[in-house]
Amino acid sequence: MASTTSTQVNKKSNNEKTTSFTSVKTLTESPNFNSIPSSYTYTTNPNDENEIVVDPDDENDPIPVIDYSHLVIGTPDQRNKTIHDIRKACEEWGFFMLVNHFVSKSLLEKMVDQVFGFFNLREEEKQVYAGKEVMDPIRYGTSFNVSGDRILFWRDFIKIVVRPEFHSLDKPAGFRDTSAEYSRRTWKLGRELLKGISESLGLEVNYIDRTMNLESGLQMLAANLYPPCPQPELAMGMPPHSDHGLLNLLIQNGVSGLQVLHNGKWINVCSTPNCFLVLVSDHLEIMSNGKYKSVVHRAAVSNGATRMSLATVIAPSLDTVVEPASELLDNESNPAAYVGMKHIDYMELQRSNQLYGKSVLNKVKI
Questions:
Q1: What is the CATH number of the domain that holds 292?
Q2: Does the record carry Glycoprotein as a key word (predicted)?
Q3: Binning pLDDT at 50, 70 and 90, where does residue 2 land?
Q4: Is 53 within a domain?
Q5: Is residue 326 domain-resident?
Q6: Can you give the residue range of the structural domain that contains 89?
């Protein structure tokens, strides 16, 4: 997750006349639009085995499902099994589906509606929030980093910092109240998950909460809009990447498009109703000294429907130096595999680099 600019993007239409637009949504709504500009053509290596895409129907290796209720109100046996399952999911996938999470279906649906309400505003209303700096409290933009991307990505986004200081859009009506409630619920959810993850690493229950300074931690809402693409085989919503932060709690609008990399293959993740998709992020990999791996994921696009995803980033405070937990290290058998770095510096590093795979995380590996 990183910053972008509000720079207008130039394209050539079929008759080679140069026009400009400020978002993918604006482009798709332009007259006679039926093919994507060459600047959006995303090519991959045809010999790369990672380009094999499979559906999650392998009975021997299914996507992990974690029952949150067993973690927080279950019996001791249920809780112990859930912590074991979390450990296995974080080690083998860096990803799991979370059910029975106590965030109401009505709140999830209302939040999705409010996000769509924003993206459906007039372009000039959205451009009020166009930002350039990585820590602008509200940033609207397109692609990933328009000024630096060699290939543009088929998405528009809005990112809002909601903790430690709460910020909100002024439009659409009701966004502030809905996003405030949603932020409170997901922050509590994330912190409780991190308690279970602490225990799964053999650490005391509040270890991550304390050492990552979550009392003043960073929480961001990041919504991505992927309009229908007339040539989806040529475009990519977001390239393969991992996220900064500890956890990413993701919901979708009922249209699938998320793909996670697992055992050398891309796995399509279905859009399951009333379920959070939990992605292990870079700072949890660093803190666990690589025991838990941040998941590489990407966003595919389609020509049939608009997809919207809403991610909640649960992250350390900006001044926290994230480094491997000393309790997990042994100078001989398990030395530190990452250098420590302030969270804010890591975000700046991500903004200034090309987004692909773990290109940023690799820069702090020893």
A1: 2.60.120.330
A2: no
A3: very low
A4: yes
A5: yes
A6: 44-364
180-216 burial, b if ≥16 CB within 10 A, otherwise e? Answer: eebbebbbebbbbbbbbbbbbbebeeebbbebbbbee
The tens digit of pLDDT for each residue in 68-109 reads 999 999 999 999 999 999 999 999 999 999 999 999 999 999
pTM (2 decimals)? 0.90
Residues sharing a CB contact under 8 Å with residue 12, sequence separation 6 or more, in sequence order: 18, 19, 37, 38
Work out the number of other CB atoms within 10 angstroms of the CB of residue 280.
Answer: 26
- Kindly report, residue by residue over 135-159, the tens digit of the pLDDT: 789 999 987 665 556 678 999 999 9
- Asked if 127 and 96 count as a contact pair (C-beta separation under 8 A), the reply is no
User: Would residue 274 count as lying in a domain?
Assistant: yes
Sign of the C-alpha dihedral, residues 133, 285, 225, 97? negative
HSE-CB for 217 with a 13 A CA cutoff? 27
Of the pLDDT bands very low, low, confident and very high (cuts 50, 70, 90), residue 273 is confident
CB contact set of 122 (below 8 Å; sequence gap of 6+): none
Q: Is the pLDDT of residue 172 over 90?
A: yes
- 190, 314 in Cβ contact below 8 A? yes
**Within 10 A of 277 (CB to CB), how many other CB atoms are there?**
24
Which parts of the chain are beta strand (E)? 9-12, 18-21, 53-54, 65-67, 95-99, 138-142, 156-163, 218-226, 238-241, 247-252, 258-262, 265-268, 276-280, 297-299, 307-315, 321-322, 341-342
Residue 39 lies in a domain: no
Structural domain count of the chain:
1
CB-based contacts of 98, cutoff 8 Å, min separation 6: 65, 66, 68, 189, 193, 249, 275, 276, 277, 278
| 3-state secondary structure (DSSP) of residue 245 | coil
- Any long-range contacts for 111-116 (C-beta under 8 Å, 24+ apart)? 111/178, 111/179, 111/182, 111/251, 111/310, 112/251, 112/253, 112/308, 112/310, 114/172, 114/174, 114/175, 114/178, 114/179, 115/158, 115/223, 115/308, 115/310, 116/253, 116/308
* pLDDT confidence of residue 50: 58
Token pair, residue 142, equals: 């397109």
